[in-house]
Amino acid sequence: MASDKRLEINMFMGFSMLPNALSILRIILTVPIVIALLKEQYFLVMVLFFSAGVTDALDGWFAKQFSLQSRLGSILDPMADKILLTCTFITLYWVEILPLWLLLLIFFRVLIIVAATVGYFLGQEASENERLQPSWISKLNTVLQIILVLFVVLAQLQEGFIEWFEIAFIIVATSTALSGADYMWLWIRQFVLQETKK
């Protein structure tokens, strides 16, 4: 009876780590995606990047469906997204697909998010129940950035899409700027709240 109980606990503990394991898998997939981009293996890039997008959707679904949200997960999930997307965009710029101005805008947003996240957690008491939730603007921007990567890679296989690059870049630049401003507001608000408590 006791052994059955321990087995159930071990199975639950393993299952509870599934969302975080999917986030780690997304980070690992960054390496073959970058290598495939550098080798211009665009079909492989699409398969790998689509797989990474599936892990992103699944870890959020598992976390919400089975109440597996955790403080670690609230850090690991967005960190996996930032690592995957930032490395992919840097590589896309390196192979002369992404313009420099868009790369700099995306990178600047990442810096704002890092500052906002650090400021948030420094201003909070260390608690397992505290989780930094991304806004809907940030979630939308992540989806649009994922779609942009798939779109520009697909365009390397089907040249007819290239004429739509400018519109796609402007859409993602707009969502990136709005998301960055949203995180900056979060950082400023947290700073003001901490100052008023002193």
- CATH superfamily heading: CDP-alcohol phosphotransferase transmembrane (TM) domain
Helix and strand run: HHHHHHH
- The CATH topology: Four Helix Bundle (Hemerythrin (Met), subunit A)
Task: Report the portion of residues in β strands.
Answer: under 5%
Cα distance, first to last residue?
54 Å
Give the fraction of residues assigned to helices: over 70%
Q: Which shape, going by the Cα principal axes?
A: globular
Number of strands: 0
Rg over CA atoms: 19 Å
Return the average pLDDT rounded to an integer: 80
Largest sheet: none
Tally of separate domains: 1
Q: Helical segment tally? A: 7
CATH class: Mainly Alpha
- What is the annotated CATH architecture? Up-down Bundle
Class from helix and strand fractions: mainly alpha
Low-confidence stretches: 2-15
Structure description:
This protein is an all-alpha fold and 198 residues long. It has a single domain (2-197), classed as Four Helix Bundle (Hemerythrin (Met), subunit A), CATH 1.20.120. Helix content is 82%, strand content 0%. It has helices spanning 2-16, 18-38, 42-65, 71-94, 100-122, 136-157, 165-197. Helix 2 (18-38) packs parallel to helix 4, helix 3 packs antiparallel against helix 6 (136-157) and helix 4 (71-94) packs parallel to helix 6 (136-157). The longest helix is centred in the C-terminal third of the chain and has 33 residues, at 165-197. The radius of gyration is 19 Å and the shape is globular. It starts with a helix and ends with a helix.
